[in-house]
Amino acid sequence: RKEVEQDPGPFNVPEGATVAFNCTYSNSASQSFFWYRQDCRKEPKLLMSVYSSGNEDGRFTAQLNRASQYISLLIRDSKLSDSATYLCVVILTGRRALTFGSGTRLQVQP
Amino acid sequence: DAGITQSPRHKVTETGTPVTLRCHQTENHRYMYWYRQDPGHGLRLIHYSYGVKDTDKGEVSDGYSVSRSKTEDFLLTLESATSSQTSVYFCAISESAGQNYGYTFGSGTRLTVV
């Protein structure tokens, strides 16, 4: 079983739609959580960290549910420029590196 | 943007030949990482370094070795390249391995082993 699992998609949504991605992690000792964004043939870039209390950055809202071991990302009012792959990332306690999910592809259509 | 560069950006090599990829940073960050990315697998950790001459294995380290003789350079070597090592390789740097520190990635090296 993969340590971090995501629905690969693709999610095809119209501009202006709200879309949500979920991610589950298998190790309850995971200590830090992030969403990264990766454009086609580019490097991953940090979108936002995820905190237990939930956090928001403009149109993006991230939630963490430690009891159920899942992380979510909500994108409101989708833009064409949001089209990318969204990577769920965790840091396991005692590890010194990021562990990635395989990513969820989003395609926002005009 | 953080100063991190990878070289070469693209490489085609033959099976059985040695290959070295270079990651160079100007941020003086302690941690450096090598990941590979393949369809359906996301990014997987190959090796990482937590200081000069201090390295450790990741989840897919077989067939790879690394060296870090200077803070700014982290080299990844494929001693004898195989077709299964065809991939996109990303280097990353981080000031700390702890939570809430940003990891910055290089632009990647696209390696094809024929």
Annotation keywords:
heterodimer; A: 110 residues; mainly beta; 5-stranded antiparallel beta sheet; B: mainly beta; 4-stranded antiparallel beta sheet; globular
In words, what does this structure look like?
The complex is a heterodimer of chains A (about 110) and B (about 110). Chain A is mainly β and about 110 residues long. Helix content of chain A is about 0%, strand content about 55%. In chain A, β9 and β10 (about 100) form a beta hairpin. Chain A is globular, with a radius of gyration of 13 Å. The mean pLDDT of chain A is about 90. Chain B is mostly beta strands. In chain B, about 0% of the residues lie in helices and about 60% in strands. Chain B is built from no helices and eleven strands. In chain B, the strands form two sheets. In chain B, strands 2, 4, 5, 6, 9, 10 and 11 form a seven-stranded mixed sheet that branches. Chain B is globular. The mean pLDDT of chain B is about 95. Chains A and B meet through β5 and β10 of A and β4 and β5 of B.
